[in-house]
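thought: user wants a sequence for this fold. calling inverse folding tool.
action: design(structure=
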């Protein structure tokens, strides 16, 4: 009998011990994760008694997200005055589906739980006031955001503009978009209906074409290949054979120039600089084969492809296959060198790459939030610029900048010319199996000391369909955005 009592007692002690461990784990170790988990509905309900902080544009006045007091059981309603224009940045604050994008990343700040606003929160509690969250001041220029959106119109695609010297994101627009207000209402039935409709939409409006998805970059990728060439001893004057098509090793297939003709009117040889100016596929395929997969992959990694670039919201970095993937696929090396095959990149990453060239070879981490302000408006945190790395030397960056200037001055990117301003750029027309080509353009200005770098992609040719090119479709959008950035 005593033995059985001891066994029962021991069992209870073990159970109590496990219970104590679990309580400590929940209250101490996992507390932050649980509090910020969008699926934690109990805590979400409690947060509706908090006057959540605002999200503001770079001017400190344009309201992107705010909280309004209501008469309902849920005291505060999250509102997005210009919903679709900033939806992929602000995200949503949903009673049913939790938080996304900045609403999730900066939840502690916006809900008044961050250490920087602890004193203000304590004062509010003592005075019996509702808790107030901190506000975020973004790097987004509202005028430039609207310019980018107007330039893109209703065409599917994306526009990114950054300050290449700081990594500040000045504009970030993607089509299609959505209205976050329908997901942040207090009507559960309408929220679920909207969620179902948005997720069933084949255009995937909840997925940002600027940051969440990526696409074949086509000839804009040649700036990375040109960087690899310069970093490995090839000069702008190095000449390459100029046939209209390239016989690919290991296969009977060929790789052709755009239009199937010689570059530069049939010259027997073309320099690297000339090949970039007129976007010569055959020559860049030759450069890629000469460099080899390892050097291309190394340069891609230096620019952050297949890597991890810190950002304020979820960000899908570009992808370049590892060198071993090309062990028995030399044709794949050639096609990758012109931005096809399995190469994928998004518009923000492309802007960062162009910005690195203009910034003397230094690529900055992208930054969307510049300040956190407490409920009284006092700045409690400034987010400083940070370098991601140096994918190419300052000398080679200067050389590549001059090569990209000729693209805009007399090559495929003349539609991006700005009177009185030197512009460096590169066009791209990316084949996309089963659909019309994607039209790309990347640029920075002023070329000698850029304050803005822009990338544009118009998916599936936009209005021109199969006739679309980066120079005709994307370059004019980039020019408009750069003009606004340089005058604002």
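)
observation: tool returned 488 residues.
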């Amino acid at each position: 009998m005593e033995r059985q009592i001891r066994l029962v007692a021991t069992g209870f002690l073990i159970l109590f011990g496990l219970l104590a461990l679990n309580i400590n784990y929940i209250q101490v170790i996992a507390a932050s994760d649980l509090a910020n988990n969008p699926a934690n509905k109990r805590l979400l309900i409690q947060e509706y008694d908090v006057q959540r902080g605002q999200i503001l544009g770079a001017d400190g006045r344009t309201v992107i997200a705010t909280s309004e007091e209501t008469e309902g059981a849920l005291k505060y309603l999250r509102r997005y005055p210009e919903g679709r224009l900033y939806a992929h940045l602000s995200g949503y604050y949903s009673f049913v589906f939790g938080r996304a994008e900045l609403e999730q990343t900066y939840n502690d700040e916006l809900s008044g739980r961050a250490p920087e606003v602890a004193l203000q929160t304590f004062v509010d509690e003592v005075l019996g006031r509702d808790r107030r969250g901190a506000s975020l001041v973004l790097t987004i220029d509202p005028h430039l955001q609207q310019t980018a959106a107007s330039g893109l119109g209703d065409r599917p695609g994306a526009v990114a503009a950054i300050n290449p010297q700081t990594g500040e994101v000045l504009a970030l627009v993607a089509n299609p978009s959505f209205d976050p207000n329908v997901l942040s209402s207090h009507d559960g039935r309408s929220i679920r209906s909207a969620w179902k409709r948005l997720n069933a939409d084949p255009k995937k409006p909840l997925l940002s074409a600027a940051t969440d998805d990526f696409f074949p970059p086509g000839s804009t990728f040649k700036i990375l290949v040109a960087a690899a060439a310069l970093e490995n001893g090839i000069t702008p004057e190095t000449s390459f054979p100029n046939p209209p098509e390239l016989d690919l090793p290991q296969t009977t297939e060929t790789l052709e120039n755009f239009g199937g003709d010689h570059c530069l009117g049939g010259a027997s040889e073309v320099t690297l600089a000339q090949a970039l100016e007129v976007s010569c596929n055959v020559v860049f395929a030759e450069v890629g084969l000469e460099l080899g997969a390892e050097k291309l992959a190394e340069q891609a990694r230096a620019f952050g492809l297949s890597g991890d670039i810190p950002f304020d919201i979820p960000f899908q970095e570009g992808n370049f296959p590892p060198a071993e993937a090309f062990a028995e696929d030399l044709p794949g090396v050639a096609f990758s060198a012109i931005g096809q095959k399995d190469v994928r990149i998004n518009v923000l990453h492309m802007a960062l790459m162009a910005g690195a060239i203009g910034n003397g070879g230094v690529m900055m981490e992208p930054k969307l939030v510049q300040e956190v302000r407490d409920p009284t408006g006092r700045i409690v945190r400034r987010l400083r610029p940070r370098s991601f790395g140096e994918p190419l030397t300052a000398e080679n960056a200067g050389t590549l900048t001059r090569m990209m200037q000729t693209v805009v001055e007399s090559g495929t990117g003349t539609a991006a010319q700005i009177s009185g301003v030197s512009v460096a750029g590169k066009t791209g027309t990316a084949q996309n199996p089963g659909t019309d080509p994607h039209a790309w353009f990347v640029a920075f200005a002023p070329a000698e000391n850029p304050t803005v770098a822009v990338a544009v992609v118009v998916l599936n040719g936009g209005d021109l369909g199969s006739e679309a090119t980066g120079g005709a479709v994307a370059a004019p959008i980039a020019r408009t955005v750069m003009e606004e950035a340089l005058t604002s």
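thought: summarizing for user.
answer: Here is the designed sequence. The CA atoms of residues 302 and 391 lie 5 Å apart.
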